[in-house]
């Protein structure tokens, strides 16, 4: 059974997902996201797959 804290977190994320178009993203942050996406598209093989990253992160803790 999920803990009360987990349920609260899920509720917050659900509310955010339902209103994401109402969230104001600063222009500097949009530019940074565009830059990162462009870099990834230019060099897609340099990215670490999530499952590998996750294993490495867990091992480093």
Give structural notes:
This protein has 61 residues and is mainly α. The protein has a domain at 25-61. Helix content is 69%, strand content 0%. It contains three helices and no strands. It has helices at 4-18, 27-42, 50-60. The longest helix has 16 residues, at 27-42. The chain is flat and about 40 Å long.
The gist of it:
By secondary structure, the chain is an all-alpha fold. It has helices spanning 4-18, 27-42, 50-60.
Question: What are its keywords?
Answer:
single chain, 61 residues, mainly alpha, 0% strand
Write the layout of secondary structure elements.
Blueprint: H1 4-18, H2 27-42, H3 50-60
Distance between the termini: 26 Å
Radius of gyration: 17 Å
Instruction: Estimate what percentage of residues fall within beta strands.
Output: under 5%
Tell me the total number of β-strands: 0
Instruction: Outline the biggest β-sheet.
Output: none
Estimated structural class? mainly alpha
Tell me, what's the shape?
flat
Average pLDDT rating: 89
Unreliable runs, pLDDT <50, ≥5 residues? none
Q: H/E series, N to C? A: HHH
């Amino acid at each position: 059974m999920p803990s009360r804290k987990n349920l609260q977190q899920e509720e917050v994320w659900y509310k955010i997902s339902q209103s994401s178009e109402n969230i104001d993203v600063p222009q500097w942050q949009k530019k940074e996201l565009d830059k990162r996406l462009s870099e990834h598209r230019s060099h897609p093989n340099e990215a670490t797959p999530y499952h590998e990253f996750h294993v490495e992160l867990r091992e480093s803790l």
